[in-house]
């Protein structure tokens, strides 16, 4: 699943909308790179909310954001709103990767990959994903999962 | 104009919508009081944008937020969106006051008054508002200004 | 206790320091009013942490920020650090009020009063403060409580 | 310069300190990943401030953050302070890369690489770095540049 083009809106299964705030601006008058991270976070949180709900609780706890790669393609201005598309780009042994894009209309503003690792809260070591959880990730990433 | 009920949606001339972000939450799971301040700020910035545009530039520069009174009426949860209503509650000699309300549907979450003072950037002293600017504030506050 | 001058550093019992962040700036190059609210919040949180620790847990839960009055006296620039002084300015039947000041060196940048009301989480109605809690507030506000 | 170990404090030439805020926490009680990005940003901004000051202005304008890779190694709690170390890990034809680490005492919380590209503001195309600017980056990255 790794070669998904994150600048192509057709590749995302799940969408949310955020409104740009005056507080997101930095002294040069553009939306700050940190604010773009809050958009991506909303995409991931609501993706989990929509697709992982049916999962038993102990499958879900203990995931941590381990690696986060963001590419900024275009500056973003206030006011306005953006759309965040989210999908799954990789399912590993003990981790999976979100692929995301922030769009203003047809324009891609930024893309990101966020690696979530399942951790044993006591030992701090990684734990394998269950087959059930992997199947759920697979289903959530497919275009058929779109809402 | 002082006795406007800021919990009544009919009293606002200008509205914007903001989307609640996961990043707005604090450890108790509610939207933090600071995030509510960013909603009010968006209401004021876009009120100025809509109504003060035609004004000559030197009438607008040099306003500072001097006093800000916020009342929190109800907790707010993620996810969802809120509406911010903004109007003018007072026009003084060298200052004016925004009246604002944050609403989720019919429910009033918080209300605020924000006093903006016109300041001479060099001396730091307050400057009187022009008659033209006062007339514009008056017009912007009336229900007829609604968009 | 109401007439405490919040611009006078000698009137605060408890101090914390915050570092100004680039992210606190808004497009005009000054620290945004919302960032100043995060400084005040840190002052209140750490005041509670230092002084209310010994209290039994059910005395502490259920306080909400009901009213928040901020006065901005001077613009603030990046980089640098500020000090937040916090004390108690009022002890009521079911609420108490924090008095606070943000200072850069000797200069007062902003002052605030924050009313915390004790709420019954089920009924949403206010609950009286216990005598024990009032005595603790009294002690925390006195200069002898300084750390 | 690419193989610098960003978890080793000895590899950074320039340091700043940030104070963790209550507002940085998310509902699970840890410092949010977005707040960690504001720490890294402060490190980059103040690195530029200290080392690039003598540069003529047109060499400095037009840099954009193009790619940002963050690795989160440990959770971070409130209250407390962190140190951000910053250095240069790569000098390219039209871009350079900041290497950074956030530390709490000896513990490495997160590391990051941030690629800054020099852009022609009119055409949007990348522009080569001058030899003078490259020499300055080289000097700023060396341990001798430490302050």
SSE inventory with pairings:
The structure is a homotetramer of 147-residue chains.
Chain A: E1 14-19, H1 33-51, H2 57-60, E2 63-72, E3 81-91, E4 95-104, E5 107-118, H3 131-141
Antiparallel strand pairs in A: 1-3, 2-5, 3-4, 4-5
Q: Can you describe this structure?
A:
4 copies of one chain form a homotetramer. Chain A is α+β, with helices and mostly antiparallel strands. Chain A has one domain (9-145): Hotdog Thioesterase (Thiol Ester Dehydrase, Chain A, Roll), CATH 3.10.129.10. The first copy, chain A, has 3 helices and 5 strands. Chain A has a 5-stranded antiparallel β-sheet with strand order 1-3-4-5-2. In chain A, a hairpin with a 3-residue loop joins strand 3 (81-91) and strand 4 (95-104). Chain A is globular, with a radius of gyration of 16 Å. The model of chain A has no long low-confidence stretch (mean pLDDT 90). Chain A binds chain D through residues 32-34, 37-38, 41, 64-72, 75, and chain D through 32-34, 37-38, 41, 64-72, 75. Strand 2 of chain B pairs antiparallel with strand 2 (63-72) of chain C, so a sheet runs across the interface.
Short synopsis of the structure:
The structure is a homotetramer of 147-residue chains. Chain A is of the alpha+beta class.
The CATH architecture classification of chain A is: Roll
Count of folded domains of chain A: 1
What name does CATH use for the topology of chain A? Thiol Ester Dehydrase, Chain A
Residue windows where pLDDT falls under 50 for at least 5 positions of chain A? none
Largest interface (CB within 8 Å) is between: A-D, 16 and 16 residues
| N- and C-termini, Cα separation of chain A | 21 Å
Strand percent estimate of chain A:
25-35%
CATH fourth-tier homologous superfamily of chain A = Hotdog Thioesterase
Shape of chain A: globular
């Amino acid at each position: 699943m790794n070669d998904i083009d994150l600048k192509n809106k057709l590749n995302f299964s799940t969408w949310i909308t955020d409104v740009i705030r005056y507080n997101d601006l930095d002294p040069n008058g553009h939306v700050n790179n940190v604010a773009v991270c809050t958009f991506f976070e909303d995409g991931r949180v609501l993706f989990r909310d929509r697709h992982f709900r049916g999962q038993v609780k102990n499958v879900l706890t203990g995931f941590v954001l381990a690696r986060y790669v963001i590419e900024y393609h275009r500056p973003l201005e206030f006011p306005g709103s953006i759309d965040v598309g989210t999908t799954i780009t990789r399912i590993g042994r003990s981790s999976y990767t979100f692929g995301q894009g922030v769009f203003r209309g047809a324009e891609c503003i930024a893309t990101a990959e966020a690696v979530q690792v399942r951790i044993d809260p006591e030992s701090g070591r990684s734990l394998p994903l269950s087959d059930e959880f992997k199947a759920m990730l697979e289903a959530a990433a497919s275009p058929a999962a779109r809402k």
